[in-house]
Write a structure and sequence with these properties.
The chain has helices at residues 15-27, 38-47, 64-74, 89-98, 110-124, 141-154, 170-180, 198-206, 223-226, 242-254, 280-285, 291-297, 314-328, 338-346, 352-366, 374-383, 391-409, 414-421, 425-434; strands at 7-11, 31-35, 52-56, 80-84, 102-105, 160-163, 188-192, 231-235, 256-257, 266-267, 271-276, 300-303, 335-336, 371-372. A hairpin with an 8-residue loop joins strand 9 (256-257) and strand 10. The strands form four sheets. A five-stranded parallel β-sheet has the order 2-1-3-4-5, sandwiched between helices. It folds into four domains: 7-124, Response regulator (Rossmann fold); 141-303, Rossmann fold (3-Layer(aba) Sandwich); 308-383, Helicase, Ruva Protein, domain 3 (Orthogonal Bundle), CATH 1.10.8; 391-442, no CATH class. It has 444 residues and is of the alpha/beta class.
Length: 444
């Protein structure tokens, strides 16, 4: 069997079968986590990195297929095997058509289960060499799952659209995908589509012939040509003028580029990665972004979480960034005090990782002692307070505060809290899972 260190999540409302299956798989060397129902499983998936889910089909509140649908939405690419004592050909066909990796009937044949687990892990396993993502510091299950998806998609040449708020590290992820791809030995070239006026952006992308416009005193190679054989990263693609969107679509369709002022097309071999902080679906509805271009760019979509969504990474990132900054400026600065680190963890971070970088650079610059204290962190955060959160950030923070207040008021009684919120219990549990809240922590 392969990948014995893999962590499996077993979901079954029969505690006896759950224990027995867990013991068998543990004896084979796997790490095992268990859940008695779908809601508990989703909550656990928010907290831990899981490589494979093995779930019963028939369960109260949320059956195996409903759980699979939630997993597919929250953790795309995570393989799921479904077990059932009520097996039938229609059930199996329905499950596999929806993307379930395997469908096995109870009592489960041990060899068939082990074979299905091996195949699922082999299908989803990321490469063991992590050099491609060395610039991404994380232990967050959300980020680790995202990196597994990035590593898998890097092996093909499909276009990838990276979504995420400003400062979450979209270009860093794009560089990692390039480094993991077959194009790694060729150029990676990035351009911010919102940073240049239309004519200059067009010239940068496609190049120009001599005399194409005033000031074009010589022929110039465009970025599509410069990235030949490699990857072109179009950052803030949502800011690209519509006239250029048409020309970009033509390049992607025909795999040819025509420099400004030229009558000849040039063949290109370039992989396209793009990124945006905008809601391109809404932009399409408002006719501000071309639908045909969107589907060309968005063959695979990856969403980078905000820093608050991966708050467990803050101590790790802070220590890493402190070490880098101290090496450049003040080698005697070595750590944060406990109170200072607690303050960093409690921050809202509307500017995400980029804001954290700025705060730590300022702390190091102003520190006169080896240990950075809470006051310096407070001072640095005050300097960053002018960063205005996006609507999505503000709504997310409101939701989190609202849910915490409800659980405090009801002392962790989910039924009562859901009633006050005007939601059914299943919907309310999903909200809690999304914000990584555990009602048990609010009980007296």
């Amino acid at each position: 069997m392969i990948k014995k260190s893999a962590r499996l999540l077993l979901v079954d409302d029969d505690p006896g079968l759950l224990t027995l299956l867990g013991m068998r798989l543990t004896s084979e060397g796997f790490q095992i986590a268990t859940a008695m129902n779908g809601i508990e499983a989703l909550r656990l998936l928010q907290r831990e990195k899981i490589d494979l889910v093995v779930s019963d089909l028939r369960m109260d509140e949320m059956d195996g297929l409903a759980l699979f649908a939630e997993i597919q939405s929250l953790h795309p690419g995570l393989p799921v095997i479904i077990l059932t004592a009520h097996g039938s050909i229609p059930d199996a066909v329905a499950a596999t058509q929806k993307g379930v990796f395997s469908f096995l009937t109870k009592p489960v044949d041990r060899d068939a289960l082990y074979k299905a687990i091996d195949e699922a892990l082999a299908h989803s396993a990321p490469a063991s060499d992590d050099a491609w993502r060395e610039s991404i510091v994380t232990r967050s299950p959300i980020m680790l799952r995202l990196l597994e998806q990035a590593r898998m998609v890097a092996q093909s040449d499909v276009s990838v659209l990276i979504n995420g708020q400003s400062g979450t590290g979209k270009e860093v992820l794009a560089r990692a995908i390039h480094a993991a791809s077959q194009r790694a030995s060729h150029p990676f070239i990035a351009i911010n589509c919102g940073a240049l006026p239309e004519q200059l952006l067009e010239s940068e992308l496609f190049g120009h012939a001599r005399g194409a416009f005033t000031g074009a005193v010589s022929q110039r190679e465009g970025l599509f040509q410069a990235a030949e054989g490699g990857t072109l990263f179009l950052d803030e693609i949502g800011d690209m003028p519509q006239a250029l969107q048409v020309k970009l679509l033509r390049v992607l369709q025909e795999r040819k580029v025509r420099p400004l002022g030229s009558n000849h097309d040039l063949d290109i071999d370039v992989r396209i990665l793009s990124a945006t902080h905008r809601n391109l679906v809404m932009e399409m509805q408002q006719k501000e972004f071309r639908e045909d271009l969107y589907y060309r760019l968005n063959v695979v979509s990856l969403r980078l979480p905000t820093l608050r969504e991966r708050a467990e990474d803050i101590p790790l990132l802070a220590a890493h960034l402190l070490k880098q900054s101290a090496k450049r400026h003040k080698p005697f600065v070595s750590s944060f005090s406990t109170d200072a680190m607690r303050r960093l963890i409690a921050g809202n971070w509307p500017g995400n990782v980029r804001q954290l970088v700025n705060v730590i650079e300022q702390c190091v610059a102003l520190s006169s002692a080896p240990v950075i204290g809470e006051r310096l962190v407070e001072q640095a955060l005050e300097g960053e307070i002018t960063v205005l959160p996006t609507f999505a950030q503000a709504r997310n923070q409101f939701e989190l505060n609202y849910l915490r207040k409800l659980l405090q008021m009801t002392k962790g009684n989910v039924t009562h809290a859901a009633r006050l919120a005007g939601r059914n219990r299943t919907e309310f549990y999903k909200l809690l899972a999304r914000h990584e809240l555990d009602a048990a922590e609010f009980k007296e």
